[in-house]
Amino acid sequence: MSKKKKQTMTIVILCVLLVAAGIGYYGAGVHQKKKAAKEAAQEDKEITLYSLKADDLVSVHVVSDKADMTYTKENGVWKDAKDNQYPIDQEKINDILDDVAEVKASKLVVTDPEDISQYQLDKPSYQIELKDRAGTTKTLTIGMESVAAEGYYAYCGNKNKIYAIPSNITDSLSYTKQEMMELPEQPDINASYVTAFKVMPSKGETFEAVYNKNRAQYKDYEGWDITPVYGKTMPGSASVLQNQFSGLASLSCTDGVTYKATSSDKKKYGLDKPSYVVDVSYYTVEGDSTDQNTTTDESKQKKTDHVYQFSVGKKDKSGDNYYVSIQGEKGIYRMSAETIDGIVAVTPMNMLCNTPHKTNVDTLQEITLTQNGKTHKIVMTKKEVKNAISEDNSKVYDYYVKLDGKSVDQETFRTTYQTVFGNLVYRRPISDKQKVTGNKSVGTITIKTDDRTLKLEFLPYDGVNFYRIKVDGQCHFLVDKNVADKVFEKLLASK
Fold first, then answer.
1. Are residues 229 and 316 both part of a single domain?
2. Model pTM?
């Protein structure tokens, strides 16, 4: 063979080898790509570690740094295996079952790990043991949380395979024993349906407000009577009281301390001598409608009366809650300090109707004013307008006003009347420490209406800013001196 032919043959052989190598390389690349794609698909696919039916479970054992609880199911009710009387919150145990009855992993992290401690599985954060009615048992061990694993490290029975499970699985597993306690039902208190409210502090005077719509002398104040420290029942402010009662809707226990309190427990949590005892009387309405566009037939409504009483003890370590006991319950619980502080922060002065005179001008008959030894009388009469009916189907009247026998413009008088008495309000209780400048009456106003007679008397106080005001013989409050003087001035100027 010639030298030239040998060179040609060598080149051909080399080309063949290069082509074969290329084909081999291409084939290997395709294989690697397929393998990677397969592994990626496997990673994206959830891995079922176990699957049990929640309804078939009869035992659940949860161990964490917060609790070691075993729950058993008896006659459809979950109970504490160690204390059959312990009231377990059924909704919370169902939360646990929803999370752990079936567990799926996002991926397999490692097979045959050399050291499970690096995943904190030697000292697990949570360990759950489940048993169903067929006797099947599953154990899930949960270690540390990992951002890289996008969840918690865990294994099911076999330590040889460690998986990543979703982080939210631990939400329900973090309940303490106290948090698992079933709490007393939250009272359904509508501020508009409160009929009595009483706060009894361990230090200080009791505050009590009672709704009594049948007392005619208080009908202008919507029936609220307050029994303060002043020795007399006085009308309360409906709007202020309703705002105060709105906090009652937030009354609920945050968690339990003990379901069966002993005398030592009560002493420990300050409930042997409570700081406050709060008593609320209210009613609920069956068939009541909250829809303003819906008219409810009151004759078909069923009202049920309720009494809710709770005692307030010490604050917990955080200061965010009070320990409380509830009438009719044997346990001790915690309630929001913010809610309770708002409810017990009542004083007669803040809750009273702060207007000494609050009468509808349409009910007025006469006013007698005495000042500086002179007496004046304002008389208002009304005459029914025949064949006239108002929008609410009530009678229509013409009103006539006379001051010392002389007619005055009734519209001007009505405006003056409402303005001067609207501005006359209690400013504060009389102080025993203030030296009174005198006891001679500055002036009196006697107001006669369709249903009552009210006498207001003004007495000196500091000689500058305030008068004492005596209402029907009771003297407890101060009013602005200038405002009181304006009452006389403006009413007498009506002529």
1. yes
2. 0.73
